[in-house]
Amino acid sequence: MIRKIAEAVTDHPKLIIISILIIVAFLASGIPKIRIEENIKEMLPQDIPSRQTLNKLDDIFGGSDVILIAISAEPDIFNSRTLGKVKAMTDSLEMMPSFTKVTSLSTIKQIKGMEWGLEVTQFMEEVPQSSKEIEQLRERLYEDSTYLGQVVSYDGTHTAVIAVVAEDTDTNLIYKEVSELVEKFQSPESIHLSGTPVIMSIVGSKIKNDLRRLIPFVIAVVCIIMYLCFGTLTGMIIPLLAALLSTVSMIGLMGHMGKPFMVVNNIMPVVLIAVGVSYAIHIIAGFYDEILITGDKREALLRTIDHVGTPVALAGLTTIVGFATMMTAPLTILAEFGAFLAFGVFMASLITLTLVPAILTLLPVPKRKLQVVKTGLIDRFLNTISKTVPRWRKSFFFSGIILMIIFAFGLPKPQMDMNPITFFPHDSEIRQADREVNEHLGGSVNLNLLFKGNIQSPEIIEAMDDIQQFLEKFPETGSSFSLATIVKKINRVMNDDNPAFEVVPETESAIAQSLLMYSMSGSPEDFEQFVDNSYENAQVVARLKSVSTKRTSKIANAVEKYCRENFKDMEKIEITGMVVFLKDMADLIIISQIRSLLISVVLISLIAWIIYRSGVIGILAIIPVVITVFINFGLMGYFGIALSTPTAVISSIIIGIGIDFSFHFLSRYKLELQRSSTIEAIRTTIKRVGKPILYDALPTACGFLVLLTSGFLPVRYLGALIAMTMMICAMGALTILASALIITRAK
Predict the structure, then answer these.
(1) Distance (Å, rounded) from C-alpha 134 to C-alpha 373?
(2) pTM recorded for the entire structure
(3) Which of 334, 404, 319 is CA-nearest to residue 633?
(4) For the residues of 70-123, what is the DSSP string, one character each?
(5) CA–CA dist 714, 647 (Å, integer)
(6) Closest Cα partner for 607 from 322, 279, 348?
(7) Phi and psi (nearest 5°) for 68?
(8) Contact present, 623 and 400 (Cβ < 8 Å)
């Protein structure tokens, strides 16, 4: 089969080139349809309960995401200038149709008991000008204490403007408008923007920046490495061309299928360029070796495809399998990552086996490649390895096993952290804003509980209050608010502001009477964020400090358990919010990791078993990859690198790309074993495929190092880890796999 492909390509190179370019052009026509999706919620499947509950909340209450403007001033915010800025920003936000509710010092209301009933007044209807008026505002806020820790910090140095974003709003547009508004009021106050819509908008911006920067950067790096390896323009341009055409095909297919770029997808071009280059390298390196032997271009290409075509095809197949196993992941973003990369690898394999030799057929052979050159540094290194490995085979093999055991102790250490705020550098503006909100204004991550039923019944109001009290036991809980908070406050002020009466009234009629009395002085709209007009749906909104996903997951699980154990009608209480989103994503990533890792290892071992007709070979083939996976996750554990959406794909990349080295080594070993003894076959194999393997690993590693310039910390970690593990995997094939073949005498 491979021989027939080789003959067809060398006999009809122009037809092959035109056919491949037509296919690529068709696929590439989908690139203009590509869009950036920064919405973190879109990472979760639609059928996840927390996602469905959040959709209900958005439909009932008009939106659940908030933009939080944190304002700080020295010595405190109680001065007419700062308070004036708060009111001006609030007024501007209320005029924007993208916000359904704005809460700040100029909108919050105080409930006071009067002889004739209740009086509901704004804390700051107009900006106080005199020091007396400002002091009165301060006293009223601290006497009431309802909004301390969320709208105003306890020390008075910070205040917040909290705007609820309407459903289906363009977050990028809103972020731009609010940023421009805030910029007008900066200095001497320090003003920061926080909240999920802000994070999502910045994520989208950084994805675009990454794509604009990473692709040209990786192309430049690969070009330099290719030229250093081969010393010819042909050796530099052809592998890069193969990689770019396959990458364009993959991105175009994403556009045709309406799939967006998200925080994981932006590394896909880098991955595929590395893979595409590596496949073409073996063809180029093999051709340059054969042309010295045969002196005839066509014969050299036929022999190259004969010898290298099969391992390239097998490498492509196993890489496709490695990435395709991610399609079993319950997390949509990971499943699509695997599916599209699998298609991209298919295109890279096809282009390598057809377009690359077709171009080589038409181009003249570089003169310097027709001459025998002096033995280089890599040749001398491989010559040393070929002598050392057979002699010290047991030492090499057991060193690999010992390394795996050492790093295995680090495997339980990596923590799941899906909080998108941790994707940004510690000195970034968004991280600084997050710290300000966490320390002074109640936290930036929401936990929402949706209640259904007769909301005015004491049972449901008390359930809300119980859950709020339970939540506030956690140090991470900054604040919580619900209809129960308002009902208890009304009951207190109606009883001479006696703290003993800050409880839920015992009867439904008493609750209804309290709310009616409030509406006579206040406005029914004051409740719309917490209960619907029919009093059939209500929510508790808790704000938590932005901490690790592990910790917030424990809180979410504790709340679920508390509701299940304390309320018989648990089906009437649904839990959602960013806290639950992050917990669900962490759970799905763990499932995805374990499932895809096991399936890919089993399938790749099975492929090796079938191809080489040996169960022992099937196991030996994956040894370098398995050791590398252990080293990778062990290092993550020892250095405290968290598992997140971007780093969750590391194992699939290691297996998908790293297994190629083993198959190239085994395919050559199979040929050499027909001519000589096991040890001599190993020595010859190391010399013959060692250079292509190292030429493959080096640009791949350098290509991934480009990710160190990403705007996302997890992507930087991924780049460093993959670059290191690619070299480990390549050396593992030349040493540990070679040693294992000698020890087992596998045929």
Answers:
(1) 86
(2) 0.81
(3) 404
(4) EEE-SS-S-SHHHHHHHHHHHHHHHTSTTEEEEESTTT-EEEEEETTEEEEEET
(5) 6
(6) 322
(7) -115, 120
(8) yes
Please report the sign of the dihedral spanned by the C-alpha atoms of residue 665, residue 671, residue 676, residue 678: positive
Residue tagged 């449901």 (tokens) = 460
Predicted confidence (pLDDT) per residue in 55-73, tens digit:
888 888 877 788 899 999 9
Q: What is the pLDDT of residue 1?
A: 67
Mean pLDDT of 245-254: 94
Residue 524 scores a pLDDT above 70: no
639 confidence band (pLDDT: 50, 70, 90): confident
- What the block records as the tokens of 388 is 């050392």
| C-alpha to C-alpha distance for 637 and 420, rounded to whole angstroms | 20
- Angstrom distance (rounded) from CA 472 to CA 478: 8
Whether the Cβ atoms of residue 336 and residue 659 lie closer than 8 Å to each other: no
pLDDT category of residue 643 using cuts at 50, 70 and 90: confident
Tokens 């304002």, located at residue: 71
Instruction: Walk me through the domains of the chain, giving residue ranges and CATH numbers.
Output: 2-40+200-408+582-744 (1.20.1640.10), 66-194 (3.30.70.1440), 429-576 (no CATH)
Which two structure tokens, joined as six digits, stand for 171? 């977050």
What per-residue confidence (pLDDT) applies to 250? 94
Q: Which residues contact 216 (CB under 8 A, 6 or more apart)?
A: none
3-state secondary structure of 475: coil
Q: Are 61 and 451 in contact (CB under 8 A)?
A: no
For residue 474, count CB atoms less than 10 angstroms from its CB and return exposed for 0-12, middle for 13-18, buried for 19 or more: middle
Residue closest to 652 by CA, chosen among 397, 429, 212, 333: 333
Q: Which amino acid does the sequence have at 722?
A: I
